[in-house]
Design brief:
- The protein is of the alpha/beta class and 287 residues long.
- The chain folds into two domains: 67 residues, no CATH class; 210 residues, 3-Layer(aba) Sandwich (Rossmann fold), CATH 3.40.50.
- The chain has eight helices and eight strands.
- It has an eight-stranded mixed beta sheet, with helices on both faces.
- β7, α7 and β8 form a beta-alpha-beta unit.
- α1 packs across α6 and α3 packs across α4.
- It is globular.
- The N and C termini lie far apart (74 Å).
Amino acid sequence: MKIWLRVLIDAVIVIVVLTIILGWRAIMPVRMSIYLFPSDIGLPYENIVLKTNDGKSLKGWFIPSKTGKGVIICLHGYPANKSDILPVVSFLYPDFSLLLFDFRAHGESEGKITYFGLKEFMDVKAAMDFIKSRERTKDNRIGIWGYSLGGAVGIIASAKYKGIDAIVTDSAFANFPEMVTHYYKNLGPLKYLFSALSRLLGRYILGADFIENSPEYFVDKITSPILIIHSVEDDFVPYAHAERLFSKAPQPKELWKVEGAHTGLDRAFTGEYQDRVLSFFKKYLEE
């Protein structure tokens, strides 16, 4: 009996230690280098620095359009940076000006810890403030295009702040605790234990419950039109997340079921994707 008790205690210790290690690595992502600049693909730009309400400096690019009537804030996923989505969103120019930046703890921006949406909505607010502070863009309508984590953060920011006129999300999650459980899916029943411990660790280190960065509890509060794009083949963020977001979002809303992997976004280089997203933004940002 004592042997089995000791084995159980050792197993619990191993699980706790592994959860701490994996959790710590998750909230402190390896920074990926900036490998592509707007000038590399023929786009004009200026380097900008955004300042968040909690004092973080975020590095970004502003790509001004001489003819566009709106500005689209483009939000990258995790763990990535602005250069990863640059070729994906470049088709939106010159119909619109673009603003890309690195979330806190990513790319060239300040911060050591990522909060998975618990604080990143303030990063979006800093981008909105930048647009409104400039004479040339202060009266422009603002859109958001967000991928994965960026899409989730875009929904939360749109619910918290006025001034977002259209949202497009691609592969956004609806519930973050469920994402944590899904992350450990290969561990069988143990995934629930790892998930519970991760949530507890998150409360201790990040000072908030992961339920507070779950877009499905915010999407009903947005006042802007939303286009939700999600692949039925997504094995990282299941398609059911998109269905739940869509069911809770107010009108006007659209859900576009696509195919392909979670990563890569090859669909974004197709004419169908570009036409659909561009038409959506033109409809609501050029009114």
